Amino acid sequence: MSKRDFYEVLGVSRDASEAELKKAYRRVAMKHHPDRNPGDDTAEEKFKEANEAFEVLSDSQKRARYDQYGHAGVNQQGGGGGGAGDFGDIFGDIFGDIFGGARGGGGGRSHVRKGADLRYNLELDLEEAVRGTTSKIRIPTAVKCKTCEGSGAKKGSKPVTCGTCNGMGQVRMQQGFFSVQQTCPHCQGSGKQIKDPCHTCRGQGHVEEQKTLSVKVPPGVDNGDRIRLSGEGQAGSHGGPNGDLYVQVSVREHKLFERDGIDLHCEIPISFVDAALGGELEVPTLDGRVKLKIPAETQTGKLFRLRNKGVTPVRGGITGDLLCRVVVETPVKLTKRQKELLAEFHDIAESEGQQSPKKTTWFDGVKKFVDELRA
User: What are the two backbone dihedrals, phi and then psi, of residue 291, each rounded to the nearest 5 degrees?
Assistant: First the structure.
């Protein structure tokens, strides 16, 4: 007997989305589930058919092969489509929200869990972030309790078999038409209970200690970048793998430089004499001091670009620039003689005219604005 088209089985179009497939499978599976149709062989066959269809169409690679080659592209070994083991995984994923996330299947595998991921905030100076560094950090970690050797039970005693699940780690729950297995609420899936807990670890089987790790920070990292240390997170439960440690970078504010992507910015104060006559200044970079030529008649806000004096990106690429913004500084605490000279300079500048082009243009604009208001 030839198989029906999988899209027809679920009642969806060939361009159905993942959400539409899941919704359709839920509807068909609920309708034809054996628990709702006891003794109905036809319903059981349709249920298996829907299971096989969803098993193929919910997998992007299998779906692509099915769309191109039909049933021949996804021919299952043994010819019977998805088996009971496949159904357990699919059905658990689809109906997990109904049953509170419980998964079917035996063996107590649901209580084996990966440890939680941890985060550590690492503060760096700008120089360290740009050039890269190796930092030593201390983090809390769970290690096996030496008093009870990890059992969680007081010395001289040992855990006993859980009376609720009889050591299985799971209990069977009846919800509506379905019978599902859930993690035992009394032993949290371990199958054991501790009647007399260890005083050192309080029955946890592990204690918290500090450990030192060496973190290699690559050159070019910036605020918010994360470095993953695999397996350095919280310990897993019941034999599960450790979580990961994510080191999040935070760069301290610098006294001279401000970072903008791969570029650095800084302000350079100069006297109004240097701004007017020009000169040569030594300016700082992360690689040392360099000379910067200031042309005559430089105005406040003028930007000077020093090529390749910025940051090389953490993933490689061109190095950024250092952008120096000139700020013309007004002199303070003038002597009597300095004031006389400046007053003399002012009188000469006023008589010459056109030596402050921005000032002249601005006042001309103000005069025109006022005249228009009066007109």
Answer: -90, 135
How many domains does the chain divide into?
Answer: 4
232 against 75, higher pLDDT: 232
Cα 108 to the center of its chain, rounded Å: 32
Whether 102 is in a domain gets the answer no
Answer yes or no: do 242 and 324 share one domain: no
Structural element, H or E, at residue 212? strand 206-217
- From 95, 110, 128, the end of a domain falls on 95
Say if residue 204 is in the same domain as residue 237. Answer: yes
- Listed range (99-113, 155-169, 285-299, 358-372) with the worst mean pLDDT: 99-113
| pLDDT value of position 71 | 74
Residues with Cβ within 8 Å of 242's Cβ and at least 6 positions away in sequence, in order, are 114, 115, 231, 232, 233, 234, 235, 236
Check which CATH number belongs to the domain holding 186 and give it.
2.10.230.10
Tokens of 248: 């999040």
Q: What percent of the chain has pLDDT over 70?
A: 79
SS3 of residue 68 by DSSP: helix
- SS3 percent helix, strand, coil of the chain, rounded to 5, is 30, 25, 45
Instruction: Decide if 104 is inside a domain.
Output: no
Residue 83 domain flag: yes
Q: Is residue 110 part of a domain?
A: no
Q: Are strands 245-251 and 118-124 parallel, antiparallel or unpaired?
A: parallel
Distance CA 81, CA 340 (A): 101
Residues 323 and 345 in one domain: no
What single string gives the DSSP state of each residue in 73-130?
GGPPTTSS-S-HHHHHHHHHHHHTTTTTT----STTGGG-BPPPPEEEEEEE-HHHHH
Digit-coded pLDDT (tens) for 268-314: 999 989 999 999 999 999 989 999 999 999 999 999 999 999 999 99
Q: Which residue has the tokens 């078999």?
A: 161
Structural domain of 18 = 6-95
Q: Are residues 84 and 180 in the same domain?
A: no
Both 201 and 301 in one domain: the answer is no
pLDDT in tens, 104-156: 444 444 445 677 888 899 999 999 999 999 999 998 877 778 888 777 888 87
